[in-house]
Design a protein that fits this description.
- The protein is mostly helical and 152 residues long.
- It is 61% helix and 10% strand.
- The protein has one domain: Arc Repressor Mutant, subunit A (Orthogonal Bundle).
- Strand 1 and strand 2 form a beta hairpin.
- Helix 3 packs across helix 5 and helix 4 packs across helix 5.
Length: 152
């Protein structure tokens, strides 16, 4: 007689658990799905999602300082320095004196930085499309608006 392995419950019974309807759990689970899919999509460009976020803000035309990047992304200044250093080593960005405050530096994209951003943005849009494929365009707009309200 061979021992039988007990069947594990599938995801459906677990969906009835209280945690499956709690906002912190749902946000964390959704974040993991989006983050892992986007990270995989960006791997071919040797970028992480944080690099892409920094590069996107730099390419936005806002001419952010490192301090502004850190505040917006809610990252420690040392993390921002490391991310900008990494992008600068790749030739994607450069630091320039801020014309608004000569004591500060702004971070600006190079031509190759713009090219890298365009490629990465296309990959993250495709990743978002895949992860959100179960939502209608209206639901996607609604989700984006609600997340912006909570995040900012």
């Amino acid at each position: 007689m061979t021992p039988q392995t007990p069947e594990l419950p599938g995801p459906d019974p677990l969906l009835d658990a209280e945690v499956a309807s709690q906002i912190p759990f749902l946000v964390a689970r959704a974040r993991r799905r989006v983050h892992s899919h986007s990270t995989a999509a960006l791997a071919g460009l040797d970028l992480k999602l944080r690099h892409f976020a920094v590069l996107s803000l730099i390419c936005s035309g806002a001419q952010p300082t490192q301090r502004e990047l850190g505040e917006f992304l809610d990252l420690d200044p040392s993390q921002i320095v490391a991310l900008v250093d990494s992008l600068e080593e790749r030739g994607a960005v450069r630091r320039e004196t801020d014309p608004r405050d000569r004591r500060s530096k702004i971070v600006v994209p190079t031509e190759s930085g713009h090219d890298l951003h365009e490629q990465a943005a296309a990959l993250t849009r495709a990743s978002e499309e895949t992860v959100l494929q179960t939502l209608s365009p209206r639901e996607r707009r609604q989700l984006r608006a609600l997340l912006q309200k909570v995040a900012f």
